[in-house]
Specification:
By secondary structure, the chain is mainly α. The chain contains three helices and no strands.
Amino acid sequence: MPNQSFPVAKTAFPTRLLQQYANLLRLYPVITKSVTSGILSAFGNLLSQGLEARKKSKEGVPVRVLNRGGLFHYALYGYVVSI
């Protein structure tokens, strides 16, 4: 399947991004929603890890590094569950 380019008006970047997302959502609804769900799940996991690390550092507990495997698992889970 050839890669298509969509005409997008010359507006602000967030507006163009939303227009592009809407076009992809119209053409490929399931894949677009799945990828969006995976990204949001990974971001939620990243945010919770950051908040937990912040809480632990305030308590004086050593903070371990970012759990990249957890990010990948949440992204995969979000992608697969929404299909």
